Amino acid sequence: MAWTPRRLETPRLILQPTGEDDDRAGLDTWLQQRVGLPNQWRIISKALDRVIGIVGFIRWEPERGCAEIGFGLVKVASGQGLMTEACRAVIDYGFAEMDLSRIEARCQLANLASARVLEKIGMTREGMVRGRVHSKVPDEDFWLYAIERGVTGNDASSGC
Ligand SMILES: CC(C)(COP(=O)(O)OP(=O)(O)OC[C@H]1O[C@@H](n2cnc3c(N)ncnc32)[C@H](O)[C@@H]1OP(=O)(O)O)[C@@H](O)C(=O)NCCC(=O)NCCS
Questions:
Q1: Dist. CA 27–CA 24, nearest whole Å
Q2: d(Cα 56, Cα 40) in Å, to the nearest integer?
Q3: Which of 46, 73, 93, 114 could form a disulfide with 53 if both were Cys (CB 3.0 to 4.6 A apart)?
């Protein structure tokens, strides 16, 4: 991707562009092993002073003003609203500074926590994306979520 994300900050998190601080690289092993995760921002917990996840855009189509957000969090940090906080910051950045007009996300049908995060950040479930069942390694089915710029619900100050 031909753009350099900048450092973002939320009340509990620092979103640090990957590659900015190589001392953190050793903490990213879990994240690097997860195929399909984005690689733009490490999520650093201010309270723990360690990397707890990753967030960013796994697909970006500048000519359409459209991108797809993806994320992953270590288990120990889950259930505290942290991914919701991180995603809101990235979505605000995408609309304000990447000139996006639409941000999409896909989540596995059984990933209820992920679906809930997408709903909390104001995304709408638009439908199901069917996996290719006839390929040698069949893809899974996904829910497709999306939010468009200016749509009510993407209110970074709203509660979790
Ligand atoms: C899914 C994931 C991102 C959630 O992060 P998180 O910081 O725990 O999310 P939040 O705390 O902001 O919100 C989680 C919500 O899901 C809900 N939830 C959690 N487990 C659930 C379940 N089994 N069924 C229904 N809801 C569930 C929580 O109650 C919470 O909703 P609430 O605030 O209304 O109570 C994180 O667990 C993760 O990275 N998992 C592994 C990788 C992954 O799934 N990536 C996403 C790919 S699309």
A1: 6
A2: 5
A3: 73
The 10s digit of each residue's pLDDT in 142-160 is 999 999 998 755 444 333 3
What are the angstrom distances between the C-alpha of 31 and each of 23, 44, 51? 15, 13, 10
* Cβ(144) – ligand 1 distance below 6 Å: no
Domains, the chain:
8-148 (3.40.630.30)
Ligand 1 pocket member 89 (CB < 6 A): no
Tell me, using a 6 A CB cutoff, whether residue 109 lines ligand 1.
no
Length of the chain: 160
66: helix, coil or strand?
A: strand
* Ligand 1 nearest atom to the CA of residue 117, by list position: 13
Q: Write the pLDDT tens digit of every residue in 69-117.
A: 999 998 899 999 999 999 999 999 999 999 999 999 999 999 999 999 9
